[in-house]
Design the sequence.
């Protein structure tokens, strides 16, 4: 990346001029995800706070072979440090190296961060043991790429020891340093999750940057939060309240914008970065019900389905992805998948298409989906397929009801009139356009009600729910995606083009009032749950 | 999905029949699944089955649809890259069942061994109520739905559509397009597709086992495509198109005696036991007399036929195969998977007649091959240039 050094030089000057002079308070920023796009966003958000609150930047870095093996990015640690320093970091702490030494019982006697020295022998953690155990299990599952891990193995114990180390380090950093804020791109597993846990217990605001769009940030301000619940659970409620109070009342004014986003989504434009891509295979070309019916004829035949029965499409979860990150109806995703397969087998008054997640290979090596398919046997009304083997055209021609744990289809299908049953909470699950199950019995009830409605020809989602889903799609992709020329869009990748553009903007665009600064300022002052493009609490128009 | 459309969905006008689709960016090619749009052609399948949807509007009560599929070198590389088959598998003949608007419409066969791109067309008719201008004309290609017998699966390719191109789709008003035979190409591996019987009588086919240089075969193919009457076998003096310098395959046994000799003694003994005759073989089997010149001609690099068995040699082989009941003619229905063995009659001058016992209710595949074992081999059938030609 030849443009990188010039960009760093420009950034250094830029940020020195756009933040308050450094002071004692600390803004803690994680830079552990090996994707420089996220690191840039974390640092920019932190500096937007440092524009308001005189403070200094402490950046947490490092990685270990277990995480590197997952290939979630390829940032060079030297580049991460270079960016951190360019953005004004006072201290760059390789928290992995420290945790590694603590875990192996050969710790340094002390470590120093932001001019504070901590003795390693006195470290402890106030984390709830159940929260700790769940996070360790989730971390092991992710690293080993299998949901059900054995706590007795050497690997698991090593993961647990490292987790203990992280918990104690973060307790010290958040409890003792009392940072102004924690800015992080992830809230799960040990290396991020325990920082978030320590911050919330210490009353430190957590700004949760999203890995998509230009700049999307969720705000977790801990007033009233239950420390034993996932941080996303409280946030789901906050988002629903915000949407009800400020977005839904404006639906007439926002109608056309919601329609545009819903149309663009069919073309697979503007989608969140982790939604299925692949080009033409994911573009929905269906424009009329008659077209859908023509394609459905062939789709039914292809799977050997009875065309007189409705089709339920079950979207398998990326099995080890962030277990426990929000409220879940089943004990684990395998329980959910097996339960759903048994339910499907017994309900031959519908057709059931189980789709494996497009990125399952990155998340599961246990072959669970194939095993469930085999266990289900050869039944005329059941089919198992890989998502990417079908065009999105074909999937949409079939789906009469969608089923997921908390997957993105829950935010998409209802916008087109297809109901979704969720076996858990998601950002949008409090808004009311999905059927959200509390537990397995409730899940079964919701499925049965949906099937009854389908068979009677009644819609599973009401017009109002469709409108809410479309408005949520607009809210997610537009209203809460802040376009800053100093951040640039995720789809530019980590490329020389990105660094050239950022250097150009930092050198030539006058920075005051850039949406990065105005939006973060508004969110920070008001403690809003999400960064917004416009001021939703005023009487002004929020979209033009 | 009762809110599929948004206010930004622009209505797409259906194209009126007659129309011809030749490009992937034609708006009439409205929807794809498992097909990659081409520029100079509508597209190439990347999955099997694959399908596409045309936005068309009928202008008459009946519409004739003719779809032309192609196979080229790219077809095989695409297949190797995309077919979920074990590493090292190779693509062969492509047997495609075609359906449209949810109903099966026929089958086509594209040969596996190709020296140049091959194409094949299928025609079918649609009534006006099968074509909704608000909807789509969906055409799908894939492996036959019914389970195929092993002898057919062995001769064809799994996931057959992968890599096959859609070269053209023609829609004609009035439905005047006759339903063409499913294939008129020379039949690779003795495999050919036959359509369901148009009239309520038992169909029969005539096949010729023939040889030829490259050029001759093309003449024959063109002749076949024009009419159902076979041209004459190629003149032995037509030069082959073997490129300069490429070594020829070693000449096969120019005389059939060589092949027979391999198991002759054992066979003779066995047959002697069976029919109680110990007669001297030469007397019983005059066909073993060597015909033609006794001296072998040395192959030259330009005269193709010496590398290929002569027509007379092949005709003799055919007669032997029929008499020894080693010529297998098997038929499989492409919708039902039902198989049967068909009787064979040798006509004079190296042609066969194959007859089905009754009218065929479905498109079917017929495979003609020789039952080979340690007593009998027919390597001539695998010589370059030796092919079956469907002549009626």
Sequence:
């Amino acid at each position: 990346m030849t443009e990188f050094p010039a960009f760093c030089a420009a950034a250094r000057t830029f940020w020195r001029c756009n933040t308050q002079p450094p002071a004692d308070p600390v803004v803690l920023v994680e830079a552990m995800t090996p994707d420089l796009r996220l690191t840039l966003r974390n640092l920019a958000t932190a500096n937007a706070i440092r524009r308001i609150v005189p403070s200094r930047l402490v950046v947490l870095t490092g990685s270990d072979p277990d995480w590197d093996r997952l290939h979630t990015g390829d940032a060079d640690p030297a580049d991460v440090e270079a960016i951190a320093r360019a953005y004004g970091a006072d201290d760059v702490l390789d928290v992995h190296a420290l945790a590694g030494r603590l875990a192996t019982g050969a710790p340094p006697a002390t470590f120093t961060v932001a001019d504070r020295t901590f003795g390693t022998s006195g470290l402890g953690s106030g984390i709830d043991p159940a929260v700790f155990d769940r996070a360790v299990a989730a971390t092991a599952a992710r690293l080993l790429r299998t949901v059900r891990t054995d706590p007795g193995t050497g690997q698991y114990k090593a993961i647990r020891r490292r987790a203990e180390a992280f918990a104690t380090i973060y307790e010290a950093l958040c409890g003792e340093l009392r940072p102004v804020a924690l800015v992080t791109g992830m809230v799960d597993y040990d290396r991020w999750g325990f920082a978030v846990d320590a911050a919330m217990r210490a009353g430190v605001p957590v700004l949760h940057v999203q890995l998509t769009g230009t700049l999307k940030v969720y705000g977790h301000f801990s007033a009233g939060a239950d420390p034993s619940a996932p941080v996303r659970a409280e946030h789901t409620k906050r988002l629903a309240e915000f949407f009800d109070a400020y977005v839904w009342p404006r639906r007439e004014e926002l109608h056309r914008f919601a329609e545009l986003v819903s149309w663009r989504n069919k073309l697979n434009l503007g989608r969140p970065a982790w939604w299925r891509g692949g080009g033409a295979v994911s573009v929905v070309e269906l424009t009329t019900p008659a077209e859908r019916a023509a394609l459905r004829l062939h789709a039914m035949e292809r799977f050997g389905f009875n065309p007189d029965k409705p089709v339920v499409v079950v979207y398998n979860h990326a099995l080890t992805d962030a277990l426990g990150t929000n409220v879940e109806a089943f004990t684990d995703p395998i329980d959910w998948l097996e339960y759903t397969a048994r339910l499907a087998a017994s309900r031959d008054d519908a057709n059931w298409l189980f789709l494996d997640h497009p990125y399952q290979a990155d998340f599961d090596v246990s072959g669970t989906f194939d095993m469930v398919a085999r266990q289900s046997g050869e039944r005329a009304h059941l089919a198992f397929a890989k998502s990417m083997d079908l065009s999105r055209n074909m999937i949409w021609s079939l789906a009469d009801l969608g089923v997921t744990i908390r997957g993105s289809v829950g935010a998409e299908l209802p916008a087109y009139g297809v109901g979704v049953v969720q076996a858990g909470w998601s950002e949008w699950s409090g808004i009311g356009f999905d059927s959200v199950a509390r537990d397995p019995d409730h899940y079964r009830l919701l499925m049965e009600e949906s099937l009854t409605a389908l068979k009677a020809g009644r819609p599973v989602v009401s017009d109002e729910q469709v409108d809410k889903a479309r408005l949520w799609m607009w809210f997610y992709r537009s209203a809460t995606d802040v376009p800053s020329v100093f951040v640039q869009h995720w789809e530019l990748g980590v490329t020389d083009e990105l660094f050239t553009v950022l250097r150009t903007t930092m050198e030539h665009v006058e920075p005051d009032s850039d949406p990065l600064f105005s939006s973060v300022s508004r969110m920070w002052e008001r403690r809003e749950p999400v960064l917004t493009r416009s001021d939703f609490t005023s009487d002004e128009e929020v979209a033009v | 999905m009762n809110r599929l459309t948004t206010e930004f969905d622009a209505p797409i006008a259906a194209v009126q029949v007659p129309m011809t689709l030749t490009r992937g960016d034609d708006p009439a090619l409205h929807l794809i699944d498992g097909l990659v749009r081409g520029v100079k052609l509508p597209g190439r399948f990347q999955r099997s089955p694959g399908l596409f949807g045309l936005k068309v509007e009928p202008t008459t009560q009946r519409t004739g649809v003719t779809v032309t599929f192609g196979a080229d070198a790219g077809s095989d590389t695409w297949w190797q890259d995309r077919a979920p088959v074990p590493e090292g598998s190779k693509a062969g003949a492509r047997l495609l069942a075609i359906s449209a608007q949810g109903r099966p419409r026929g089958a086509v066969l594209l040969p596996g061994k190709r020296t140049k791109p091959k194409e094949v067309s299928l025609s079918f008719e649609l009534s006006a109520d099968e074509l909704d201008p608000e909807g789509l004309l969906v055409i799908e290609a894939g492996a036959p739905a019914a389970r195929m017998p092993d002898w057919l699966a062995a001769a064809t390719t799994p996931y057959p559509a992968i890599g096959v191109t859609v070269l053209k789709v023609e829609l004609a008003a009035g439905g005047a397009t006759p339903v063409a035979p499913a294939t008129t190409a020379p039949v690779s591996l003795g495999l050919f597709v036959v359509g369901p019987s148009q009239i309520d009588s038992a169909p029969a086919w005539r096949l010729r086992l023939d040889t030829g240089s490259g050029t001759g075969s093309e003449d024959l193919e063109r002749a076949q495509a024009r009419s159902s009457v076979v041209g004459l076998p190629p003149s032995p003096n037509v030069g082959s198109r073997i490129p300069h310098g490429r070594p020829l395959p070693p000449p096969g046994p120019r005389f059939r005696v060589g092949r027979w000799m391999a198991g002759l003694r054992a066979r003779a003994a066995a047959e002697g036991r069976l029919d109680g005759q110990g007669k001297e073989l030469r007397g019983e089997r005059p066909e073993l007399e060597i015909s033609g010149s006794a001296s072998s001609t040395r192959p030259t690099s330009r005269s193709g036929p010496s590398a290929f068995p002569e027509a007379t040699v092949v005709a003799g082989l055919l007669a032997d195969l029929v008499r020894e009941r080693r010529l297998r003619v098997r038929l499989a229905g492409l919708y039902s998977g039902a198989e049967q063995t068909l009787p064979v009659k040798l006509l004079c001058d190296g042609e066969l007649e194959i007859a089905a016992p009754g009218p065929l209710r479905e498109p079917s595949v017929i495979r003609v091959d020789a039952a080979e074992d340690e007593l009998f081999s027919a390597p001539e059938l695998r010589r370059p240039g030796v092919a079956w030609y469907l002549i009626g």
Notes: The first strand of chain A starts at residue 26 and ends at 30. Chain A has 20 helices and 14 strands. The radius of gyration of chain A is 24 Å.
